[in-house]
Design goal:
The chain is mainly alpha-helical. The protein has one domain: MFS general substrate transporter like domains (Growth Hormone, Chain: A, Up-down Bundle). Helix content is 75%, strand content 0%. The chain contains 19 helices and no strands.
Length: 410
C-alpha cells in the first residue's frame, strides 16, 4: 500500500501577523490582570488601576502621534519597527514587574509599554494591508480578534496561575511579546504597498508629511469612518478596563464553579474575538460599513440595558448580556479601520491609521478616567457614561456620508 507524503502548508501571512499581534498585545492589559494583587500590595483602589491603564493609553498616543507626524510608519520597514517595539515593550513590562513599588513608578513603566505598543498595533494593520489588500475587512477582523485575545490573555494567565506571584504573570506577557516580534521579523513586508522610503526620502516630501497625513481627513469617507471609530473608542477600552469591576459587583463572579473574576473577565473580553471573526465573515456578503454600524448599535444597546437593569437581571441573563456586549464592543473596530485604510492614498496608510489611532486612544484616556472615577463614586450606574460613544459614532458616520450624497446630488 502506497503512502502519500504529508503536505505541510505554511500558515498564511495574515495568520502569522494575527498570531504575532495576539502575543505582542498581551502587554496591553497585563497590569489589569494583577489588579487585585496590586490593590492589596499598594493600598490602591479601582480608580488607581484606571490610571495605570490610562498611562498605557497615553504612551500609545504619544508614540502613534510621533510615528504619524514624523512619517516613520511609512519611511521604514514595518516588520523592523514591529520587532523592535516588541523587544522594548517586553523590557519595560518586565521593569514594571521587577522594579515597581507604587503607583508613580508603575505609571512610568506602563507609559513606556504604551509607547512601545505604538509600534505593534498600527504596524500590524499596515502589514495586513501589505499582504491582503483585497480582503482587508476579513484580514483586519482576524488581526483585531487576536488583539482582543491578547487583551484577555493576562486575565487567563492570572486565573491559571492563581497561586503564583503577580510578577510571574506579568513576565509571561513579556515572553509572549518577544515571540510575536520574532514571527514578524521573519515574515517581513508584503508586496502590495510602496517600499520603505528610508532616510534618503525626498526632503520636501518629508516636510510635507504632516500636512499630507492630516489631509486624509479631507476625504469624506475617511472622515466618516473616523467618526465611527472615535465613538467606538469612547466605549471600548473603558469597558475592557472595568469588566473585572462589573463582574465582581454582579452575580457573574460565581456563575461558573472554579472561575472567579479573572476567569470570567477573560471569557467576556475574549468573546470579542468571536465578534470580530463573525463581522469579518459578514463582509464577504456585505460592505464593511453596515457591519461596523450594526456592531456599534448592538454594543451601545447592551450598555444601555446593563445600566438600566444590572441590579435586577438573573445570573443567566446577565451572562448573556455581558457576552453579547463583549462580542459586539470590538467587532466594529476592524471594519472602521478597513474603511479608513481604503479611503486614503496607499503611501499614507501607515501614517493615516496611526494618526486615527492616536486620536482614538486620546479619547479612551478621558473615558477610562471618568468611568473608573464614577464607578468609585456611584457604583455600576456609571456605565451610563459609555453609552454616548456609540450614539455619537453612529450619528457622525451617518450624517457625514449623507452630507456627501447630498453634495453629489446638487
Amino acid at each position: 500500500m502506497l503512502s502519500l507524503p504529508l503536505v505541510r502548508r505554511r500558515p498564511s501571512p495574515s495568520t502569522v501577523i494575527a498570531v504575532a499581534q495576539l502575543l505582542g498585545t498581551s502587554l496591553w492589559f497585563s497590569a489589569n490582570s494583577a489588579a487585585q494583587d496590586l490593590a492589596r500590595a499598594w493600598h490602591i483602589g479601582n480608580s488607581d488601576i484606571g490610571w495605570l491603564t490610562s498611562a498605557v493609553q497615553t504612551g500609545f498616543i504619544t508614540g502613534t502621534l510621533f510615528m504619524a507626524l514624523a512619517g516613520l510608519a511609512d519611511r521604514f520597514r514595518a516588520s523592523r519597527i514591529f520587532a523592535i517595539s516588541t523587544i522594548a515593550g517586553a523590557f519595560f513590562n518586565a521593569c514594571f514587574a521587577w522594579f515597581s513599588h507604587g503607583l508613580a513608578d508603575a505609571m512610568l513603566y506602563r507609559f513606556l509599554v504604551g509607547l512601545s505598543l505604538a509600534g505593534i498595533y498600527p504596524l500590524g494593520m499596515k502589514l495586513i494591508v501589505s499582504w491582503e489588500p483585497r480582503r482587508t475587512g476579513m484580514a483586519l477582523a482576524q488581526l483585531v480578534a487576536m488583539l482582543t485575545l491578547g487583551t484577555a490573555l493576562p486575565h487567563l494567565l492570572r486565573q491559571l496561575g492563581a497561586g503564583l506571584p503577580w510578577q510571574t504573570v506579568i513576565l509571561a506577557s513579556s515572553v509572549l511579546a518577544l515571540g510575536g516580534g520574532g514571527l514578524i521579523y521573519a515574515l517581513g513586508e508584503g508586496p502590495h504597498l510602496p517600499g520603505a522610503r528610508g532616510r534618503s526620502h525626498d526632503r520636501a516630501g518629508a516636510n510635507g508629511g504632516k500636512a499630507a497625513v492630516l489631509s486624509a481627513f479631507k476625504a469624506r469617507p475617511f472622515r466618516a469612518a473616523a467618526w465611527g471609530y472615535f465613538g467606538h473608542m469612547w466605549e471600548l477600552y473603558a469597558f475592557w478596563t472595568v469588566v473585572p469591576v462589573l463582574i465582581s459587583h454582579t452575580t457573574l463572579a460565581g456563575i461558573v464553579p472554579g472561575w472567579g473574576v479573572s476567569g470570567m473577565s477573560f471569557v467576556v473580553i475574549a468573546a470579542g474575538a468571536l465578534g470580530c471573526m463573525a463581522g469579518g465573515m459578514l463582509t464577504r456578503r456585505l460592505d464593511s460599513a453596515p457591519v461596523a454600524l450594526g456592531a456599534l448599535f448592538i454594543s451601545g444597546t447592551c450598555g444601555a440595558v446593563f445600566a438600566l437593569s444590572w441590579s435586577t437581571l438573573s445570573p443567566l441573563a446577565m451572562a448573556i448580556l455581558m457576552l453579547v456586549w463583549g462580542a459586539s464592543v470590538v467587532a466594529d473596530s476592524p471594519q472602521f479601520s478597513a474603511l479608513s485604510a481604503r479611503s486614503c492614498p496607499a503611501d499614507l496608510v501607515g501614517s493615516a491609521l496611526a494618526i486615527q489611532n492616536a486620536i482614538g486612544f486620546a479619547i479612551t484616556v478621558v473615558s477610562i478616567s471618568l468611568c473608573t472615577d464614577l464607578l468609585a463614586r456611584i457604583g455600576l450606574d456609571a456605565v451610563w457614561l459609555l453609552v454616548p460613544g456609540p450614539m455619537v459614532g453612529l450619528a457622525g458616520y451617518t450624517l457625514t456620508i449623507r452630507g456627501g450624497q447630498r453634495a453629489m446630488q446638487t
